[in-house]
Amino acid sequence: MFYLLASWFFFSLAVIAHIVWSRKTRNPSRWLAMFCFIALIMLCGDVVFAGIFSHVVGNNSPGVATLPLYGTAIVFYVMLVPVYTLLYFAMLTDSPSKMILKKLQAEGTSTYEDLLKLLTYEEVISPRLQDLEAGGFIRRENDQYWLLRRGHGVAKLISLCQKICNRGLGG
After folding, report:
1. CA spacing 20 to 30 A to 21: which of 84, 85, 95, 155?
2. CB–CB of 46/72 below 8 Å?
3. CA-to-CA distance for 72 and 99, rounded, in angstroms?
4. What pLDDT shows up at residue 166?
5. Helix (H, G, I), strand (E, B), or coil: what is residue 53?
6. DSSP character at residue 139
7. Which of 88, 113, 114, 75 is closest to 34 using CA atoms?
């Protein structure tokens, strides 16, 4: 259990360092790479710390009997990285649901018409179309949008996931 707590501690340090670094820099294109770098450094620190701790406390070097404990702690740490990455970048996007929640939190109540005014074309659709076009998923010609090969692949993957999970369209 101690090794899992040590992994959690070092992962928390990586998250805190990443948040501090990303707040100081305004270049989002490097945030993911920097988090991976920080997480790798903290993983090395975790492995070294666990080795030193077991040597000092156990008066011997890590043996075969304690190897599963180290392995579990390392796998736990490595599995936390994509979870944090997904949650961090999900907070950077502004979905219609988040926009509605922010408005209701700020004003307390709102009518259906006010919420419809909040979700205009420019605030909801336009940024998503620009992202899809910049990512090479769609192409625009004469006010018509075309799905490119990359977009077809993603659309098929989304449809498959929705069928497997028995989910409809969402946002």
Report:
1. 95
2. no
3. 40
4. 67
5. helix
6. E
7. 88
For the chain, the domains span 2-92, 118-171
Task: Examine the pLDDT at 114 and tell me if it is beyond 80.
Answer: yes
Confidence band (pLDDT; 50, 70, 90) for 68? low
**Residues 162 and 148 sit within 8 Å (Cβ to Cβ):** no
Q: In which residue are the tokens 């670094």 written?
A: 21
Rounded CA-CA distance 147/144 in Å is: 10
3-state secondary structure of 170: coil
Q: Which two tokens stand for residue 113?
A: 């018409």
Hunting for tokens 């970048």 — which residue is that?
89
**Each residue of 69-96: pLDDT tens digit?**
667 878 888 888 888 888 877 776 777 7
Please list, residue by residue across 75-112, b when 16 or more beta carbons sit within 10 angstroms of its beta carbon and e when fewer do.
Answer: eebeebbeeebeebeeeeeeeeeeeeeebeeeeeeeee
